[in-house]
Amino acid sequence: MAYRSEKDSETELEYYKYKYYNELKKGRPKVKFSDLAYRCPYCPGKSKQDYLFKELLQHASAVITSRSRSTKEKARHLALERYMRKYLDVKVHSELATKTECSKPHGDQGFVYPWKGIIANIKTEWKDGKHVGESGTRLREELSRKGFNPVRVHPIWNRLGHSGFAIAEFKSDWTGFNNAMSMEKSFEVDHCGKRDYYTAKNLGDKLFGWMAHKDDYDSNGPIGVYLRKSADVKTISGKEAEDQRKASTLVSNLTNTLEVQSLHLKQIENEYQETSASLNKLIGQKEDKLKAYNEEMKKMQQNTRYHLEKIFLEHEKVTLHLEAQKKRLEQHEKQLQQREAQNETDRIKLHDEKKMNERAAVEQKKADENFLKLAEEQKKEKEKLHRKTIELEKKLDAKQALELEVERMRGALQVMKHMGDDGDFEMKKKMDLIIEDLNEKVEELDHMEQLNQALIIKERKTNDEVQEARKELIAVCIPFLTREVLAL
């Protein structure tokens, strides 16, 4: 992720650099006000401060190497530095042209890419049968102290050990190019450049250095071998064109990605709104059905309570009547026993009345048992009805979920029909699978609907049978008890 972020930052830097560079080439903003007066157009506090040419270059370099400056600020000053060196510093370019071996301008020169520098005349000594020399880390630190900032330095080795050469690698962006060029110019100023290295009769202990060019890349020595393995040759104009293409491609890809994401987001929003509306509708239907069910259950409970209270009052009435009759008979029995002149007929009649009273008590006990049995059966039927209701609710929920799944699959099928290509076999295959799955879901939904209707009809039929049985039991028990009581 860090590598990708660094690449994105470099791409953004190059994009803005070329943008501001093109603006400077068109003459806006203005940089040169006279042969000795130059101004930085990008620093508000210094917009009216005059610089010498070299001072303005130093100012631009300081901003470029600063860690506290933003990407846009660095890009502006990179563009300013490049513009000044290419279009304003005629004298410097003429001197540089006389010192370099290649007479072509930078735009047509071949440079080793990623940018690399060559360090020569590294001091070595013979030790343990081979040449040893200064490490790449120390060379990198030494170059960094001078402000060239190489990424790493690789000493070049051969069969005898350290060859006395090293390759300094720089960043692959234009900052790295500027650092490599600065290193080359610094060595040239000290008369330790490439030309000096190959023409000097006595190299001494000084380090020589220059930026790697095409002739170094094509050389037959260890330097050429190393460069051909790890790098390529590019011209400045070619690198600029390549960066421009990459920037254009990046902008185009980002634009296309944004459009695709916007369309996808809009499609998701539409699907969400449709699903939300369908879900709200189903929730409303479920709440209405639940409300109707609760009202029906409340009504059934009220009716059941009313019938039970009525039976209980009738039972209490018969019980009180039997108790009063029993007391009356017991009192009459005492009276008969007190009578000395009691005939056989009265005793038989009293005996028969006692038998009838006992039978009435037995019948009352049976009626009590039947009453309790009826109440228990009603309780069981009520529980059974409640379980069936719960089962119907579950099946209703499953049915609604299946309806949602069918609607979702139909929506997906419509989207695939609009997005699919007639020549895309994979898309047709996916559509066939969705259609087959959709048909199975529809058949399952029809089957569940039939099963649901069958359960509802069965429940109603069972409930009607229970109610009829309860009415018949009440109709049979109460008149019988009433007749027995009246007979007593």
UniProtKB/TrEMBL annotation:
Sorted UniProt keywords: Coiled coil
Residue stretches in coiled coil: 251-472
GO terms of biological process kind: gene silencing by siRNA-directed DNA methylation
Domain Zinc finger-XS, first and last residues per copy: 40-81
Start and end residues of each XS domain: 108-219
Pfam families the record matches: XS, zf-XS
PANTHER family, per database record: FACTOR OF DNA METHYLATION 4, RIBONUCLEASE P SUBUNIT P38
Entry protein name: Protein INVOLVED IN DE NOVO 2-like
